[in-house]
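> @MW can you paste both from yesterday?
MW: sure, first one:
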Amino acid sequence: MPNTDDPIARQLIALRRTQILEAAIKVFAEKGFHRATTKDIARVAGIAEGTIYSYFSSKTDLLLGILDLLNQTEQRAEHFNAGSEWNFKTFLIAYLHQRMATLWPKAEMFRAILPELLSNSTLREQYYQQVIEPTIVVAEAYFRLQIEQGQMRAVDIPLTVRAIASMVLGLLLLQLLGDSSIEQQWEKLPEVLGTMIVDGLQPQETRNRYEHQEQ
């Protein structure tokens, strides 16, 4: 990939990377990870096959790039910083809605790549270190702030963050296993899940205040 400090060139590089990744998402969803080829991806992206290797070293690198794109790793700190200006429940429901709106339309792609993610130990390690772990660090900092501000009762922050992330991934997995209720009504999940989480995490006096305001 070209190495430059030119901001316009960096923007063009980012756009080309996204173009390639979006094409790879479509091809992986249609053909599965192993049957998909970089030639297929290049055709869908409308570029020469060799161009892909200027940005990604392999199909596995492409897959890691997709997971990073869908995770919105670079934007996650910005999301949580903005959320610090909202009350806990409002932000959490909005955040869950944004995450699910990003992930759910890509459900078939997850079905195609999940076997590779589970069986490829190198990919698994890279995914955790480069995508999951940085996201957890940002979320833990946000939850710590909420506790300091009295918006959340004192909890085990690392376990709480992982439990919430697991709820979202678990719901996606249920849909992949054929759960029709989740497939048909996933747009309602942020409100349901957010309310469950907030009711469990907020201090009692805060819950009482919100309940009074909603009446």
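MW: second:
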Amino acid sequence: MMGKRRPMSRTALLLALAATAAPLPAATDGAAPPPAVAIACRVEGAAARRPAPEPLALCRRLLPGARLTVAPRSRVTVVFFDGRRYALEAEARALVEADGLRVEAGRARRLAPVPGVVDLAPILRDGAPRSRAAAVRIRGEAGAAALRGLEPREGAAVLRGAAVLSFAPSPGIESYRVTVDAEDGSAVFASDVRLPPLRVPAGVLRPAAVYTWRVEPKVPPRPAMRAEAVFVTLTAEVERARAALAAASAGQPDLALLLAEVDRCLDLRPPRP
């Protein structure tokens, strides 16, 4: 086995995201399946995963006992949820274990670990705060053209320092009124804008909170075109963890892919084109 097992502490790392983000094989005796311990965050060329023979796909979660086989002229990077990172070279074979990677043939290099951050397992197991609404609420008269294209859309998560409100403008409207309300209905931000987008100022949004934002024409006023959606903010711990991974991913394609997977699991949705 490569290296000693590092004691798990509160500074586990952002990669704990993987435990529930992808379906795991069903247990045959009714017991819960074992949790994933690593993720394939880069696959150059081809590789296979056993015991169920299948190609190793990018962002595949890896359970203890999985055997990886790397094809000639190929390379695989595996990141464990405690931050350890390995590069399996061409024609290598390795066994994924709960406490590390056991190389059985060929060569694997130990890469610099992903920066340790606060443990994200609880938030990623239980999910970020979610709105109680099921869909974007668009109010309008029969036959009226409602405002559409709201971003953040219903149920999306946002980073407090990068919260941008946008929508599809409607012909004939000179300006719009945009408001953001806290879950108790109190207004936390309001502004008039001629055209989107509109950035929410720093310090307005609280972590782990639910907000409703709405937009309606102001000049000329058309109340029937008002539209609104609910979004959530991440916890401060999750935001710090993501920021650490984002900083580490600069110039490292495998970590950049991992960051994209983290954002997918956190439901940080990119704007619609």
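> thanks! The helical segments are 18-21, 121-126, 236-248, 253-265.
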